[in-house]
Here is the input.
Amino acid sequence: MKVRTLLECTIDTFNPAPELTATIGVVLAGLPSAEERLAVLQTLYDEIVNALEEYTTPETEAAS
Here is the structure.
């Protein structure tokens, strides 16, 4: 049997950064080990890098 904790949050899409930051902090605080926290942070980092590449690549190509 798995024990889970469910986190529900509302994020204001007009200014999401503070609420996303708080949500990430709560999730990380709920993880029992540094290795698990690091794995979550690495996954988030990878997703952010991919999103940034998607948003910046078309602008770079259009400028060429």
Remarks:
- The CA atoms of residues 8 and 64 lie 44 Å apart.
- DSSP finds two helices and no strands in the chain.
